[in-house]
Amino acid sequence: MESLDGSRTGIPASAGIPASAGIPASAGIPAIPVGVCLRSMGAPWSWWRDAALRLEAAGYAGIWSWDHFVSRGRRETPVLEAWTALTAIAALTEHATIGTFVANVMNRQPAVLARMAATLQEVSGGRLVLGIGIGGNAAEHLAYGIPWPDAPERVARLEEAVAVVRALWTGGPITRPSAYYPLVDAVAHPVPHPPPPIIVGGETAAGPALAARIGDGWTTFTDRFVLDLPRYLDALAANGRERTDMRVIVGYQAGPGGALDATAWVADPRGEPERWRDAGADEAVVTARSEDDIEALVRAAGRW
Fold first, then answer.
1. Regarding predicted confidence, which is higher, 24 or 161?
2. What is the domain extent for residue 81?
3. Which residue, among 177, 190, 43, has the nearest Cα to 120 in the 3D structure?
4. Which of 25, 171, 234, 251 to pair with 302, CA 20 to 30 A apart?
5. pTM confidence score
C-alpha cells in the first residue's frame, strides 16, 4: 500500500479489517492506554490534523510525533516540525495526550525547549508528555549545522538538558552552572501546571539506567522491552525511586520492509494491550504512516 510520500508502508489488508467497515465509536477500554505516533515525513498538515482528530474520536489515548527536520528518504519530501504540529493539534483536541516520541536533545537549546513545552502545556490544558532522547540521525544535523557530538556527550547533554528544563519549570530565578547549558538569573513564566512528565527514550543497554536516573518514565521499542525492563527496574531501585511513580511506554515502529508492527494491534486489539500490560508496560504507542493505517486503527478501536 502507498504511504503519503509514495513508499510502500502501512498495515496490510491481510490484517483482517474489512475495507468497507465504518468508523465506530470506541466499544470499550483497552487494558492499557494506546496512543498513535503519526508520521511527520511526507505528511501534509491536512492529513495529519484529520488523522489525529479521527484517532482521538475513536478512543486512542494519545497523539504523538517524531522529531525530525529532514526525510530519510527523498530529500524533497516535506516534513512537519513536531512542536508546531503538536501545538496546533492540541488546540483542536480535548482528551488525548500530546507528546513527542521522542524529541532529540540536540535539536533545541533546553531553555528554549522548556519554554516551548510550558506554553504547549497551557495550550493543551495539561496534556503534554515530553518524550526526549539523544537522537539518532546524524545526517540532518550536519546538513543544518546542528552539532552532533558522539553518543557519550549526547547522553551528558541529555542529563543536563533535563535538569535545565525541570529548573525552569519552577519559574525561577535560576542560576545554574553547566558545561553545556548554564543559567544565570533565569526566569520562566508561565509555570506549567502540572509539570509535564519527562519520558526518556532508550534503545541501548544504557538507556534504562539513564531513564531511571533522570526521567519520570522510560520508553523503548518492542524488540528491547522485555530484555531491558529488568535493567530499568534495577536502576530505579538503585536510585531510590519507585516503579509506581514512573510511566513505562512500549513503542511499535516500522519492521523490515516498512511493514508496521502495529498490525498486531489491528488483528487483536484486546489481546495486544493485555499482553503488554502483563509484560510490564503502562501504555503503548503504535505508529501510523498512511491513510490505510488510520482506517485500520480506527476500525480496530471498535473491537476493544
1. 161
2. 13-301
3. 190
4. 251
5. 0.90
Residue 7 forms part of a structural domain: no
- The beta-carbon contacts of 181-185 under 8 Å, at least 24 apart in sequence, are 181/109, 181/110, 181/111, 181/157, 183/111
Buried b (16+ CB within 10 A) or exposed e, 100-120: bbbbbbbbbebbebbbbbbbb
Give the separation between CA 152 and CA 134, rounded to whole angstroms. 9
Q: How far apart are CA 38 and CA 286, in angstroms?
A: 9
Residues 142-150: contacts with CB within 8 Å, 24+ apart?
Answer: 143/70, 144/69, 144/70, 146/106, 146/107, 147/106, 148/106
Sign of CA dihedral 187, 190, 194, 195: negative
DSSP 5: T
Give the three-class secondary structure for 287: strand
Is omega for the bond preceding 102 within 30 degrees of 0, making it cis? Answer: yes
CA atoms within 13 A on the CB side of 214: 23
Could you give the residue ranges of the DSSP H alpha helices within 77-173?
82-90, 110-124, 138-144, 151-168
**Is omega for the bond preceding 190 within 30 degrees of 0, making it cis?**
yes
- Domains held by the chain: number: 1
Of 98, 107, 105, 109, the closest CA to residue 192 belongs to: 98
